[in-house]
């Protein structure tokens, strides 16, 4: 009996040794994957509190030049030569101001030729008149008449040539601001059909649209902003939902393409329930309608639930809540 027990133990030891050797070979052929399990994390929401109190309001408008227009100036005659560029980008110009002057060798030669002809005819007239003074019997009246007629014709040619040259000069069609000049023109070169100058012009007044015209008063002065500069404008007219402002300040530094900002404080809404506008979700929110709205209210256990709310007026940052939640409750933000 004791001998059989020794045989069984020996067999078991041999089997275990064989298994150990086999396991060692397997670990050499395969890599063991190690998986680290992340602990459970509850979602943390960014929240806002439903508040009760007075809500300040304001209205901000963007004002632009009334009758804003763009005028482009160009020249097409390739025989012209640049004389002088009289303006720079940003310059304010008045209607009729000379913007670019040109020269034309062919026209100038034509003018000089006719002027020389006039001088020669005038000298001949003077010569015939002197001869008639010396000799009372001499009569050059017909020659004088022809010479005077030739002088008139030459004068007409000169006037016509100067008129053509004047037509080639670029003058401001309206009052406004120069906003663009061709780079070649800036460097002293003239290229035909290159769009030489661009001018912005308008009536000088500024216009804005609003669905709350009753907030504004005709004749009242308002402060507008462009960048870091402030200017004074007077409301001159209300046309339905359009406001027309006339400048009281010097606006020479303001381009017709600039947009002016006007912010006006409105009477506050007193003792109302309100919440951050980013906490309210509405079915027609993109269309500006505040209907079928809801908020995500945060429960005591940290989870959130959708709650229908009724809403009122909306300001830049907040929406008035008229039902659905209470002051002090937490809601999640978008």
Keyword list:
27% helix, elongated, 334 residues, conserved putative lor/sdh protein from methanococcus maripaludis s2 fold, 3 domains, 4 helices, disordered N terminus, single chain, Elongation Factor Tu (Ef-tu), domain 3
Number of domains: 3
Alpha-carbon Rg, integer: 45 Å
Strand content: 35-45%
Order of helices and strands: HEEEEEEHHEEHEEEEEEEEEEE
- Helix coverage percent: 25-40%
- N-C termini distance: 82 Å
The rough form would be described as elongated
Q: What's the multimeric state?
A: single chain
User: pLDDT under 50 segments (min length 5)?
Assistant: 1-6, 8-12, 14-27
Work out the number of β strands. Answer: 19
SS content category: alpha+beta
In order across it, which strands form the biggest sheet?
11-12-13-10-2-14-18-17-16-15
Mean pLDDT over all positions:
85
Query: How many helix segments?
Result: 4
Biggest sheet details: 10 strands, antiparallel
């Amino acid at each position: 009996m004791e001998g059989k027990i020794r045989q069984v133990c020996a067999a078991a030891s041999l089997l275990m040794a064989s298994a150990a050797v086999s396991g060692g070979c397997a670990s050499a052929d395969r890599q063991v994957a190690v998986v680290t399990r992340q602990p459970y994390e509850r979602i943390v929401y960014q929240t806002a509190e439903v508040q009760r109190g007075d809500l300040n309001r304001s209205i901000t408008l963007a004002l632009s030049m009334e009758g804003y227009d763009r005028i482009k100036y160009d020249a097409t005659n390739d025989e012209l030569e640049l004389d002088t560029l009289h303006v720079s980008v940003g310059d304010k110009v008045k209607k009729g101001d000379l913007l670019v002057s040109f020269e034309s060798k062919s026209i100038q030669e034509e003018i000089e030729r006719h002027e020389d002809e006039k001088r020669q005819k005038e000298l001949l007239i003077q010569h015939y008149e002197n001869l008639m003074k010396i000799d009372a019997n001499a009569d050059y009246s017909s020659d004088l008449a022809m010479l005077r007629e030739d002088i008139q014709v030459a004068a007409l040619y000169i006037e016509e040539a100067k008129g053509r040259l004047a037509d080639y000069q670029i003058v401001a069609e309206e009052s406004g601001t120069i906003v663009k000049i061709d780079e070649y023109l800036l460097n002293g070169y003239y290229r035909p059909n290159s769009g030489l100058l661009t001018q912005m012009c308008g009536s000088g007044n500024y216009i804005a649209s609003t669905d709350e015209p009753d907030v504004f008063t005709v004749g009242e002065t308002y402060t507008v902003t462009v960048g870091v500069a402030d200017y004074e404008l007077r409301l001159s007219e209300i046309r339905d939902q359009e406001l027309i402002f006339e400048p009281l300040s010097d606006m020479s530094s303001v381009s017709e393409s600039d947009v002016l900002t006007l912010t006006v404080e409105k009477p506050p809404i007193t003792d109302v329930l309100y919440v951050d506008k980013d906490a309210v979700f509405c079915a027609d929110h993109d269309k500006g309608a505040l209907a079928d709205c809801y908020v995500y209210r945060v429960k005591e256990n940290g989870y959130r639930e959708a709650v229908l709310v009724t809403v009122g007026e909306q300001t830049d940052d907040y929406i008035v809540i008229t039902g659905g939640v209470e002051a002090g409750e937490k809601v999640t933000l978008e």
